[in-house]
């Protein structure tokens, strides 16, 4: 018998190839499991080629490690057949390991098929040497090599199946498993080699005539091809895993972003309460439940009393903080009632949707809500007080649709405000009449300007105590075709609410300027005309240009026009107000601070305002008596005006005693019914 020898360096290389191929195979099984469809089939094909090449190359490197004392070679066709067997066996193994289940019976059959394939690959590869005479195999060693192949195949399948999923620690487990699998594969190969016996005088047919592949060329081919394929497969697998992880992260981020967008679309951005859209959905669900199961529910429409004044005086930032506190209190009242909904519609309007057994349940909740809101709120060392008016509508008698219930609850809320505020009202059908009247009034108001239904009445302002005339104040009147003379307190709030106040205010400025010049052309000495600016008009970007245009159009000296703004308007966002007033003052018009004493002026800002006069609010004049509190307040305002070099005008003077006392206190000018009622322009001319 020919005695062979082994190159132990190549033996070690063969083991490394076997372990490397095993690791790539385990990783490929994980990629196949993590994908679906055509992508999974692609990974299966690539994995089968990589694993097959790995097992096959380990076999041939092991063959190269074996040296006989005769020339050796390998038939190319048979060598490729052995490679094909290795690839097909690997494809079957990967497909089996990447399945959802691997019961023992299936594992046993798979181990038998894969082990037989590996053994077949080995012995077909041996046949590629074309030994003459043929190789004599020891039956015991041959059988043992097949048993080892089957056992190794079974272990490999079980390990690949167990480690097919990605997770923490799996890469390290695969390394250990690959080392064990490499030992099993190498053990099978060298057991098979031990079974081969070469009779004395044997020759290698594949080495004759140059028809076979030389060992040197085969070593280069196998080594380069194997490491290239295995390396490419592993790198591709790692990159794909990273890409999949990144894709998963992006998917999670996208899902989170979608959830956040959905939340923002359904919730108020300030209070995080449900918004109108989510409230509508919950009301529709409540209506369906009520119809199906005969349940009852109530809608409570909540509006804060006095919130606008706080917003005007302290600014929107403070107003928002107050709203957050109020929202928290309302939520605490409803805490524990999972079926109830508290929503914010916008501004200072909230809605509560609650299931009830009787209307008294809604009344009880309304009282608790009012009590919670009425508690003072401390912000920046300032104690703020607001109350709430609540309107209640019951599903069934007060409406059967979401829109109808909200509208009727809103109407009931306004009825509560009309009754003095800080109250609640159940809806009554008569309340809708007021809402319809208001809607009709708004429609008529939109047409009033184009139909020339507005006019100005003028009230004199007299130098104390009784003249001469210092100027007139223009007061707006609406001549409604059905309701007759409509006073400003009825339609100005509607004009502000709808935005019509901007165009109406522009008309007032133009008409006042026109009338002033008409009086002067007729020979009447009217020193000035005062016009009131609403908060919306005051902050409109085009106001200075409109005033400048009116002055130029009618030829009015700028100093003859007085613009009156309320103290609360001037103190709302003081820096912005100061900039607007300075821009207006630069035109040459005079600025008057109206309703002085009712707001919360900062002396620091007041002294910086380009104002020429302060106008004492009529609330301090109404009950004015010597040595009274109002007299003390008026005296303080007059002293402040003198210190700041401002004229001081008292409005609402209705009695001779008020006229006399205000003059004694030092008021520079007076205005009120006692000195002259507001009248139309023609009648005012006869009094000048």
Number of structural units classed as domains: 3
Distance between the termini: 146 Å
Largest sheet: 8 strands, mixed, barrel
Question: How would you sum up the global shape?
Answer: elongated
Beta-strand percentage range:
15-25%
On the 0 to 100 scale, the average pLDDT is: 81
Low-confidence runs of at least 5 consecutive residues:
none
- CATH homologous superfamily grouping of the largest domain: EAL domain
Total beta strands: 23
The CATH architecture designation of the largest domain is Alpha-Beta Barrel
Based on secondary structure, the structural category is alpha/beta
Describe the structure.
- This protein is α/β, with parallel strands linked by helices.
- It has three domains: 5-234, no CATH class; 276-429, Alpha-Beta Plaits; 440-687, TIM Barrel.
- It contains 24 helices and 23 strands.
- Strands 14-15-17-18-19-20-21-22 form an eight-stranded mixed beta barrel, surrounded by four helices.
- Strand 19 (590-596), helix 20 (603-606) and strand 20 form a beta-alpha-beta unit.
- 39% of the residues are buried.
What's a concise summary of this model?
With 688 residues, this protein is of the alpha/beta class. It folds into three domains: 5-234, no CATH class; 276-429, 2-Layer Sandwich (Alpha-Beta Plaits), CATH 3.30.70.270; 440-687, Alpha-Beta Barrel (TIM Barrel), CATH 3.20.20. The chain is built from 24 helices and 23 strands.
List keywords for this structure.
single chain, 688 residues, Alpha-Beta Plaits, 3 domains, eight-stranded mixed beta barrel, 24 helices, 59% helix
């Amino acid at each position: 018998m020919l005695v062979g020898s082994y190159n132990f360096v190549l033996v070690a290389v063969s083991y490394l190839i076997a372990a490397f191929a095993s690791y790539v195979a385990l990783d490929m099984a994980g990629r196949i499991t993590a994908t679906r469809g055509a992508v999974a089939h692609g990974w299966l094909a690539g994995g089968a080629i990589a694993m097959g090449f790995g097992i096959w190359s380990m076999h041939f490197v092991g063959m190269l490690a074996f040296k006989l004392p005769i020339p050796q070679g390998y038939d190319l066709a048979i060598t490729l057949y052995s490679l094909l067997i290795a690839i097909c066996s690997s494809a079957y193994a990967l497909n089996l390991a990447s399945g959802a289940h691997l019961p023992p019976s299936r594992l046993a059959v798979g181990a038998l098929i894969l082990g037989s394939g590996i053994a077949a690959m080995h012995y077909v590869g041996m046949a590629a040497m074309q030994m003459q005479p043929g190789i004599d195999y020891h039956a015991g060693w041959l059988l043992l090599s097949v048993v080892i192949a089957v056992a190794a195949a079974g272990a490999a399948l079980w390990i690949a199946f167990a480690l097919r999923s990605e997770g923490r620690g799996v890469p390290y487990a695969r390394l250990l498993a690959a080392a064990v699998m490499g030992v099993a594969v190498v053990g099978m190969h060298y057991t098979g080699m031990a079974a081969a016996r070469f009779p004395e005088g044997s020759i290698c047919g594949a080495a004759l005539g140059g028809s076979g592949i030389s060992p040197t060329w085969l070593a280069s081919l196998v080594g380069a091809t194997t490491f290239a394929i295995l390396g490419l497969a592993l790198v591709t697998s790692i990159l794909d895993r990273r890409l999949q992880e990144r894709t998963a992260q992006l998917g999670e981020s996208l899902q989170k972003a979608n959830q956040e967008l959905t939340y923002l679309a359904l919730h108020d951005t300030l209070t995080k309460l449900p918004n109108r859209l989510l409230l509508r959905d919950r009301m529709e669900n409540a209506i369906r439940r009520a119809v199906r199961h005969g349940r009852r529910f109530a809608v409570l429409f909540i509006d804060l009393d006095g919130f606008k004044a706080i917003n005007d005086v302290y600014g929107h930032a403070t107003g928002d903080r107050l709203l957050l506190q109020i929202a928290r209190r309302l939520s605490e009242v409803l805490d524990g009632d999972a079926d109830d909904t508290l929503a914010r519609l916008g501004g200072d309007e909230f809605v509560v949707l609650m299931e009830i057994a009787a209307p008294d349940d809604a009344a009880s909740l309304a009282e608790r809500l009012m009590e919670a809101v009425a508690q003072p709120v401390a912000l920046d060392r300032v104690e703020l007080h607001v109350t709430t008016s609540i309107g209640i509508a019951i599903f069934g008698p007060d409406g059967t649709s979401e829109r109808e219930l909200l509208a009727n609850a809103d109407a009931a809320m306004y009825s509560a405000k009309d009754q003095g505020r800080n109250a609640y009202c159940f809806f009554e059908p008569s309340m809708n009449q007021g809402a319809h009247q208001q809607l009709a009034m708004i429609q008529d108001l939109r047409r009033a300007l184009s139909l020339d239904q507005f006019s100005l009445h003028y009230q004199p302002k007299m130098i104390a105590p009784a003249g001469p005339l210092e100027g007139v104040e223009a007061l707006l009147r609406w001549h409604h075709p059905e309701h007759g003379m409509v006073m400003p307190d009825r339609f100005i709030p509607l004009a502000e609410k709808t935005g019509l106040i901007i165009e109406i205010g522009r008309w007032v400025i133009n008409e006042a300027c026109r009338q002033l010049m008409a009086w002067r052309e007729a020979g009447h000495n009217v020193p000035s005309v005062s016009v009131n600016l609403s908060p919306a008009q005051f902050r409109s970007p085009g106001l200075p240009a409109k005033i400048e245009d009116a002055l130029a159009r009618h030829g009015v000296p700028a100093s003859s026009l007085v613009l009156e703004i309320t103290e609360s308007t001037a103190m709302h966002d003081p820096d912005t107000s100061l900039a607007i007033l300075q821009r207006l003052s630069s035109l040459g018009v005079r600025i008057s601070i109206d309703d002085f004493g009712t707001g919360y002026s900062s002396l620091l800002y007041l002294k910086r305002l380009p104002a020429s006069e302060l106008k004492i609010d009529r609330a301090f004049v109404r009950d004015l008596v010597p040595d009274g509190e109002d007299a003390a307040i008026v005296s303080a305002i007059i002293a402040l005006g003198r210190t700041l070099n401002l004229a001081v005008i008292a409005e609402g003077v209705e009695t001779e005693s008020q006229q006399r006392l205000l003059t004694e206190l030092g008021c520079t000018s007076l205005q009120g019914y006692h000195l002259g009622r507001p009248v139309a322009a023609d009648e005012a001319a006869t009094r000048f």
